[in-house]
Amino acid sequence: MDAAAGVFSDVVDARQQGYEIDTLSVAETIPSYGHMIATESGFGRENPTTIESFLRATARGAVWADRNPEAAIDALVAAQPELKEVRANQREKWELMRTEYTVSETVREEGWGASAPKPWRGTYETLAAGGFFDDEVDPDTVWTNEYLDTGSEYVADYADLIED
Predict the structure, then answer these.
(1) What is residue 65's predicted lDDT score, i.e. its pLDDT?
(2) What DSSP line would sit under the chain, residue for residue?
(3) What predicted TM-score, i.e. pTM, was given to this entire model?
(4) What is the mean pLDDT of the chain?
């Protein structure tokens, strides 16, 4: 194969299988968010404490995993035993994600999990240009930072905590 598209974890999988991979990141041209947590629209209004707690715990877990990558992979394999045979692959995926994709300027300035409008708008414009939407979508209404506990050190200081 001469060319393919995918996400960063596809690159790790291909390298683990012995393929030579060259990558071209489109993030500078089309800034977007990859991993995200989504709920139905009313869930946050009805369960704000649940969402805040989940996000705070996830940020804390991400800091712990950054500081304890082998133990984090052990926990992943314990939860999903079928990953045992691809443990090295999972470890490499975590290393790439934590070093290349978890800290942005927005995260440095506003904390773990924070979103900024520009990437959402850019993603919308790209998808709209491709005819992806049946109806109009306001990209400013599909995300919120409302439930991030910026009083939590794991949220507010995430970048500093993992870059120490």
Answers:
(1) 95
(2) -------HHHHHHHHHTT--------TTTS----S-----TTHHHH-HHHHHHHHHHHHHHHHHHHH-HHHHHHHHHHHSGGGGGGHHHHHHHHHHHHHHTS--HHHHHH-TT---HHHHHHHHHHHHHTT--SS---GGGS---TT--TTSHHHHTHHHHHH-
(3) 0.80
(4) 86
